[in-house]
Amino acid sequence: MHNPWLIDEIDILIRLALALLLGGLIGLEREQSNHAAGLRTNILVCLGACLLMLLSIYGFSDFVDEPNVRVDPARLAAAVITGVGFLGAGTILFTGKSITGLTTAASLWVVAAIGLAVGAGFYFASTSVTVMVLLTLWLFNKLEKRYIKAKKEHVISIHAVDLSSAMNKLNAILDGRKVIIKKMYMEDVAVSDKRKNDNETLTKLVLHIIMPQRKNEKLMQLMDDLKKLEGIRWVSSE
Predict the structure, then answer these.
(1) Least confident of 3-7, 9-13, 67-71, 141-145
(2) If you write DSSP's letter for every residue of 88-157 in order, what string do you get?
(3) Per the UniProt record, which residue ranges are transmembrane (predicted)?
(4) In what order do the strands lie in the sheet with 232-237?
(5) pLDDT in tens, 190-237
(6) Which H helix or E strand runs over 51?
(7) Across residues 125-150, what is the average pLDDT?
(8) Which of 3, 69, 76, 140 would you label with 133, given CA atoms 20 to 30 Å apart?
(9) Cβ contacts of residue 91 below 8 Å, gap of 6+?
(10) What is the C-alpha separation between 226 and 209, in angstroms, rounded?
(11) In the prediction, which pLDDT does 20 show?
(12) Taking the mean position of all CA atoms in its chain, how far away is CA 133?
């Protein structure tokens, strides 16, 4: 009769190799997308989770028959999920306007789950999830970029000597490029000119705009058009 608490070295090697392969496939996609957690990180997470799952199930087989010892194979698995949560939190960045790294953190969490599944012997489930994760990261990313994130918000600051004279042309440029103004405000700022040893008061117009294209070239073209307007000293973008 097969003992569920025992495993031979060949099976251990197969599970560790599969964890390396599946974690490497997801890590390769993250590496090609230039994310913080790349190939090696995903491989190590998947391998470590697989090893801890093997340890949790088979590492304490000598104590199974002890009357005062209770073996719980899920205990180390729960600890792995908690530990990967801290690792994933390190990949999340708050840049002031947006939060990045959530997908990478989620992929690390799934990679850990794949490693646990491989360590427990769920080959079909772990392989299927790996394929689904790759489809999610690659295919859905293409769809998201094309249909969901086709519009992106930018903040443009315009400094002008006399902004009122340039407003009509500015509006024409924005309308021509199908730019939507989400929010705008103006304020007067004093700028020192070291060459003339005096101060000059400029009007600062801050525009929160939404552009229909995601390419940076479109934003640069818009800024170039705004810089050419009469009375505008400089234009900056955030």
Answers:
(1) 67-71
(2) HHTT-EE-SS-EE-HHHHHHHHHHHHHHHHHHHT-HHHHHHHHHHHHHHHHHHHHHIIIIISS-EEEEEE
(3) 12-29, 41-61, 73-94, 122-141
(4) 180-193, 198-211, 152-160, 232-237
(5) 665 554 455 666 777 777 777 655 556 677 787 788 777 777 777 877
(6) helix 39-58
(7) 81
(8) 76
(9) 35, 36, 37, 101, 104, 105, 108
(10) 14
(11) 94
(12) 14
Instruction: Retrieve residue 159's tokens.
Output: 């400094």
pTM for this entry: 0.61
The yes or no reply on domain 152-237 and CATH 3.50.50.60 is no
Give the pLDDT score at 216.
Answer: 61
Residue 120: Cβ within 10 Å count: 19
Continuous segment of H or E residues that includes residue 237: strand 232-237
Give the list of residues 6+ apart from residue 135 with CB closer than 8 angstroms, or none: none
From residue 202, how far is each of 68, 185, 191, 207 by CA, in Å? 81, 14, 7, 16
Beta carbons within 8 Å of 9's beta carbon, 6+ residues apart: none
What digits encode the pLDDT tens for the residues 56-101?
888 766 666 667 667 677 777 888 878 887 777 777 765 555 567 7
CA gyration radius, the chain: 28
Name the residue ranges covered by the structural domains of the chain: 9-148, 152-237
- In the chain, the amino acid numbered 62 is D
Q: Encoding tokens for residue 230?
A: 């009469």
Q: Is 33 helix (H, G, I), strand (E, B) or coil?
A: coil
Q: Which two tokens stand for residue 206?
A: 């801050």
